[in-house]
Fold this protein.
Amino acid sequence: MKLTEKNLMHRREFLASSGVLAASAATAFAHFPAKGKRLKIAIVGTGSRGSQTWGKSVLEHHGDVVEIVGLCDINRKRVRAAQKLIGTSAPVFFDFDEMIRQTDPEAVVVTTVDSSHYKYTVRAMELGCDVISEKPLCTDEEQCQTILDTQKRTGQKVTVTFNARHGRGEIKVKELLLEKAVGEVQSVDFHEYLNVRHGADYFRRWHRLKENSGTLLVHKASHHFDQMNWWLDSDPVDVIAEGDLKFYGRNHAFRSTHCRVCPYRERCRFHWDVMQNEAYVKLYVDCESEDGYLRDGCVWRENTNIYDTMTVLVRYANDARLTYTANCYLPYEGQAIAFNGANGRLDYLTYSGGGKRLDEIRLTPAFGKTEVITDFGPVREGGHGGSDVSLKDMIFRGIAADDLQLSAGLRAGALASLTGIAAYRSIEREGVKVRISDLVSL
Ligand SMILES: NC(=O)c1ccc[n+]([C@@H]2O[C@H](COP(=O)([O-])OP(=O)(O)OC[C@H]3O[C@@H](n4cnc5c(N)ncnc54)[C@H](O)[C@@H]3O)[C@@H](O)[C@H]2O)c1
């Protein structure tokens, strides 16, 4: 479907009448500074995401509007390595409160291991700072409630960095749904394919332990559950899930601690050489003496306790249903998402594997021919297909199409995490239906 003047008008009228325009103003969550000033940010968690996306890349693309005033991590070597990689003279800290006291930032960027996001989010607000938290906002319901209560008490602004809303194809899907291109959406099939490289990498790193990541249903799927809330413009109500560890971890004949010392390196298809990546050597290998963290951990370690095979059913407030699956050991990488509407079906297929690549939207009316859309607008530069820069443009410059509801605040962050938390609680309780409203008081 082409975006003609007429249907653009129709979309704007629909948005205005439904109150969406008013509710979605990007400025409500943006942290852009006063004219002529730079926003003072401090970063806690200076690993890969903290030092690159929110460090080096911020200075490159947003250095005119953002100033990094402090860096903090529990790993003393890593925070110094990050300082060098970012190319900043901002001071380094090992004590969060001390960093806030000395550097007086306006906003704190939280890029630590998932299960510690809440700790810094809460403390930053208590110390009078706004928060820009990487997803997921939190990994269990208690953390979620503490964050919600603290925000209410302090009135500070919390933004959750759902860059996955900013994909070109994702935005096109949102536009089509806003236009009601397939009528009311009754159900959605969302299949997440993680391949033997990207999928395996979660089982090398801290993510493989539930106490760190809340499982991939929170760490990874919070992106997808957020996209669903955004696309459907509705809230999750209840969740049923199943999950299993069928491939990685204990499911193997041999194992080691990590790839560098592995006696099976010739036989293991998952052997991976961290030494080939100069930045990783500086950020992780050279810092092992501080915390013993192994970036090239063996994917077959027996105490891995997250799932690699997941199925989730979600019911939404608008009565739409989601069937979600995620598998982490596939020859494909990507997603197959289908919106089943009253007047047709919208498929969003974006995956690669086996020498083939697909990146298209298929719009099929109930009684008509399929239209295939492959033009998602100009190609962009930067991480995640330009989504990271787009997200930061929105946060730091206030640039965003308000009517697309791209901003994600505290509520969005909470609902995305809570869907994943409800899913793993359902698995723990052998498939019982978990109501979101039983987990926290929003
Ligand atoms: N939106 C995205 O596309 C995207 C992509 C990658 C990562 N992320 C998110 O960014 C965050 C960081 O991921 P990463 O890949 O950079 O991991 P990483 O392992 O490279 O970095 C995590 C850092 O947190 C530090 N840390 C751990 N516990 C801490 C604590 N209690 N206090 C202070 N520091 C602590 C570690 O020492 C490490 O430096 C995660 O929450 C992840 O979900 C988001």
In short: The chain has 17 helices and 15 strands.
